[in-house]
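[Q] Does anyone have a clean structure-token version of this?
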Amino acid sequence: MSALRQRVRDVLREYPGSQRAFAERIGLDPTKLSKSLTGTRRFTPAELARIAEAGGVTVNWLINGSDQAETVVAVPQHTARSGRAPADRREAGRYQQILDAAWKLIAERGYHSVRVADVAEACGTSAATIHYYFPGRNDLLTETLRYSVRLAFDRQVAELHSIEDAHERLLHLVELQLPTPGLLRLEWSIWLQVWTESALNPDLQVLHSDSYTRWHDTIARTIREGQQQGVFTDTDAEELTVTLTALIDGLGIQVLAGRPGRSVERMRQVLRDFVEREIVRR
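[A] Here you go.
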């Protein structure tokens, strides 16, 4: 934990504002931030995810000291940005502001309903500035997908890295994938649009495949670990993963589409029942 606190201090040292301003940026009381830095209080998973986002780093780096460190969650592959993300921290802040705005607008309105001018208005800047960082509209959609992958990865590492029991971790993974109101529902909206566009855009298919592989591998390694722990059935882990991820996708789409009888609560129960019936060793 001392190494984690030091890396948070490193993030603060690079931040262009004060420690109080950083605390406000991540929605944390400055006193709580100070206590966490001195070790009298632990950072929560949600706080680690917000620190990583504000600091332009990953939760994996904060916890383990490396973006590529082996953890309970599969590491994203091929995540190099296609936009002109700057190295300068102040310009990087503008880039992130644009990406945040585009991500939210696309999630709420739909990719084809969002114009570059809308993103510029949301950021209080010009369309030329948007085009500087993201030359085309397709770049915006591509980066929103990468951003969603990074958000999910950071959230999963923060929430799951300390859960040793594979059964508990798998149920937590299911919970993190439910389209509950707020961030997760917006992420689902992005994924639905990416699925649609991927059917027509071969370049996006490659990125989508890489991104989905990370999620698939996270489920598969959790199931295999549960089998090693003796808590999961010996049924082929790959087959169980294919079925579970397909069930999550199908139910999630039905929830977002507002199909009668398909609520988040119903989705949670169906998925937990499947885990208990088909994956957990009786």
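[Q] Thanks! Anything notable?
[A] The chain has a mean pLDDT of 87.
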